[in-house]
Amino acid sequence: MSSLPVVELDGNTLHIEQVICIAKSQSLISIPEAAREKVRHSRTMVEQMVSGQQVVYGITTGFGKFSDVMITGEDVTQLQENLIMSHACGMGEPYPVEVVRAMMTLRINALVKGYSGIREETLLHLVELVNRGVHPIIPQQGSLGASGDLAPLAHMVLVMLGKGEAEVNGKRMSGAEALALVGLNPIRLQAKEGLALINGTQAMTALLCLSLDEARTVMETAEVIAAMTVEALRGIPKAFDPQLHLVRPHPGQQESARRLLQHLQGSERTTVQGEIRVQDAYSLRCLPQVHGATRDTLEYVWTTVSRECNSVTDNPVLFTETGDVISGGNFHGQPMAFAADFLAIAIAELGNISERRTERLVNPQLSGLPGFLTENGGLHSGFMITQYVAASIVSENKVLCHPASVDSIPSSANQEDHVSMGTTAARKLRTVVANTAKVLAIEYVAAAQAIEFGTGELGSGTKRAYELIRQVIPRLREDREMYLDLAKAEDLIRQGALRGNGP
């Protein structure tokens, strides 16, 4: 375990790449002394408020609609455990381990900022769960995205209490068994701690972090696959000329045009205006404009999520410098909800335009190539049904892109009368990204097949992409089980094999 990389969490400098590293590569977490000192200071505030019997939401009062109910004495401690048990009512399939690890990491990073009032030993217990590979079973359904991700985070905390369920080394067991297996004892929550652990946006933010990494892979992959299709259809790269994009200076558009030209550099498969046609169809000619808009959206969402990774999303928030305890709404997931919905739309468009390019590849009236890219049409169907599959998945994405963030259902007897549905948006986003990788896989296999019917050198980037797919998928000469080919192409995309292919 000691040989694994260690990421230091101080509450202010966590990068999305580090979240992904902890989530996917089982990196360890450490907390610097300066951050621990801030945690201790905020804890002192809580203890003073309890001993002074101050009226403070969630510390000496109930929650939600019960915020006007005073809690005193030993009940202050029992209140926190009751909170976790009552709020752990999620349903559905559990989140994958990588989502759980990202969620735990983000919650730790919020707590170490020193505005939450948690005890240092409770914080370190959560750190040890991550470092020792104890992954709570967290159902995917049940969060409104305000007051934060209450149900998912409550399931996370159950295991700290020796309750609920967890996965250790791929085996599912009770929370008590999991703690015992790694040499940890259950904890007893004190005042404010239950609320500090579950009042935040960490489920939706975890999903967004992972989706952003996967979306970047899809983005870079889409460009080189599109360039292959341009060559297969003998497209006109003049539409990617830098001077055209300088006069409409969207950064993403300019970057996409640059990358397309780089992928096509040295190609003998493309044409000039008027050689075969004066203009290409939009799905080729407008590649920089469409892909570029997705690039710009990615950058916006990346910035927004990076900010959230280092935010305080509790309620109430304790300010040790001024002594103020402020009840507000930092737990509200609206920024993440909008970001997730926006990114889902942007990534879905990569699939939409990809499916249109696949149609141009397989349709002989549009391509000038053998129908459905098979040499013996009639006896063989070739790529006929792959386009059906792409169309089906694209249609599914369009349904999933209905924004969750425009919905709100009041809760807690109308005390919490506007919620973000941000976690629903983030869950849908990850499905959209995965679906788009499938659509691009179909175009990838089809473009490689279409290239077989032409002659001449491929571009510097497209040649590498073509050679890569031919290492695992041979040319289609007669019908075979196409799902096997598509699965291999999808694996190449999801593994990021084409992400390092470009400039």
Automatic annotation (TrEMBL):
Cross-link 5-imidazolinone (Ala-Gly) residue location(s): 146-148
Cross-referenced Pfam families: Lyase_aromatic
Superkingdom assignment: Bacteria
EC number(s) on file: 4.3.1.3
PROSITE patterns on file: PAL_HISTIDASE
Modifications after synthesis and translation: Contains an active site 4-methylidene-imidazol-5-one (MIO), which is formed autocatalytically by cyclization and dehydration of residues Ala-Ser-Gly.
Name by which UniProt lists this protein: Histidine ammonia-lyase
Lineage of origin: Bacteria, Bacillati, Bacillota, Bacilli, Bacillales
